[in-house]
Amino acid sequence: MSKTLPSVESDVTQMIERLRSGDVRALARAVSLVENDAPSATEVLSTCFPFSGRALRIGVTGAPGVGKSTIVDKLARHYRGAGVTVGVIAVDPTSPFTGGAILGDRIRMQENLGDPGFYVRSMATRGSLGGLARTTADVASVIEASGKDVILIETVGVGQDEIDIVRLSDVTIVVLVPGMGDDVQSLKAGIMEIADLFVVNKADREGADRVEKEVRAMQSLATSHGDWIPPVVKTIASTGEGIDRLTDAIAQMKQWLEADGRLEVRRRKYWRERITEMMRNALMRELREHGLSDVELDALAERVASKQEDPYRLVPELVARVVRA
Amino acid sequence: MSKTLPSVESDVTQMIERLRSGDVRALARAVSLVENDAPSATEVLSTCFPFSGRALRIGVTGAPGVGKSTIVDKLARHYRGAGVTVGVIAVDPTSPFTGGAILGDRIRMQENLGDPGFYVRSMATRGSLGGLARTTADVASVIEASGKDVILIETVGVGQDEIDIVRLSDVTIVVLVPGMGDDVQSLKAGIMEIADLFVVNKADREGADRVEKEVRAMQSLATSHGDWIPPVVKTIASTGEGIDRLTDAIAQMKQWLEADGRLEVRRRKYWRERITEMMRNALMRELREHGLSDVELDALAERVASKQEDPYRLVPELVARVVRA
């Protein structure tokens, strides 16, 4: 592998240079390499790294059907109108039930725009735990390296996956709608805590004021967010109403983050988690490559399932195989 | 540490003996040790291991407010009435908004029952990724070692956390209700795929037939579950209506699982994942103990956040510290 590295490196260097000079194909190729965890993915990320971290990352989450895609589209158009370059990462599930639709819309959206200051990428949820959040983070870094000013990260649903994904963001927007059946109270625990901004979308529907009141009531119960009290912004994304108030709120949040080094603190915390996770993955790869093959793992699982082997004694022995004495 | 091991071992052995002879306090203590990841937790799990794996694990998941707790309570009462011993693990969030209530109810439930064939344990979600699924699995093993025939595992919500938790089960029940606002279509991807049984609870409400039809329609689109077609059972858990049909469906599923070694296949798959995860955690512990302190990690995160250090080059170096050459 070390023999082929120089050539990969120069390929990658060229690709990233093209990506940085605005070549959309080079960007798409780099993103694909990272998304598919190709052999050169680490080289791509390492080469992009010095040029990443300059964009404002905005995460948008909320239950299915609240209008996240529409909000993201309107935000993207607003920023483009103001000359701000935008990347969008739409994280979609690959469920056979809902898989293709959003991806299709996004592809159309990109085709219609044909704008070099705008890049959109749909990503599919894979089975692997935590893997999607990692890949989203890496893809965001690559898109940032292409010089985008704002990265919008949109998730489907409000589960732990989504919480992990939006935690990558500098600003996290939680979208609610009136009359969800679902009370605000029944929102997945953890979602309230990560919100920097609440949007009550479809605010022309009955009950918008009630949703806002409920959010306020919860905030009064919640542990403090420091001196930032997440604002509640009402929108009707389909008509664009309230999008200007939302971009104002985002700008205020950005200002607050940039004051007193708060953004640095967030990003330091973010990198702490990322480094830990990268190490965890790298260690597992070592174990799989040098210690424990798939076939052996299958055989062990069978012996454990049939009570012939105690996993609590087995695992320390396996770990000892790869770890220095 | 090796010096104190004999005494811990004999303590643990005694505790597990008492636990196995029906001592509820010993059971509660053992569960606490495992839940809190105490130094003796591995010894507890190792000692319980030969006596675990005999219960039928039933996972119950669904959106907040669909009546999961009521269903679990009715199932528990039904089984107790039939002389079947029952353990319940209720996995609750520690959110400041919804934290304490369910736990409180559960404690009352246990006090009221005062039945040695019944044990209930509430568990709180922690921040750590995947950690709760692991702890739930371990706690289930300990409760199984006390000789319970059925373990009911109930989650709050339907996110990735919950999917990970109910994947530990032999039988997974997904609870729906009519008029959720939420369509069945908008259910978190992944939930449909893990369901072995659907319950349409509050079936006296308008729209119960529609929910059933929607589930059926989705099933016709879904990838096959083998030759098991997840049945849809209508219940009104608050009055107990339909609980007998539900226990019948569970019994049928159990029969199906036990035929042709399907249960063994599921459990082998389960242990494959568990062993992998246990190794991942053990490797991280090694790294933290021998390679990288918290203080050092903080310093690295700061250098990475300020672009002084490339994490993609750093991590392989860190991993090399603990891994054999």
TrEMBL record, chains A, B:
Keywords from the named record: Chaperone, GTP-binding, Hydrolase, Nucleotide-binding
CDD domains (UniProt xref): MMAA-like
Pfam families linked to this entry: MeaB (PF03308)
One example GO MF annotation: GTPase activity
Domain (AAA+ ATPase) ranges: 54-205
UniProt family annotation: Belongs to the SIMIBI class G3E GTPase family. ArgK/MeaB subfamily.
Protein name: Methylmalonyl Co-A mutase-associated GTPase MeaB
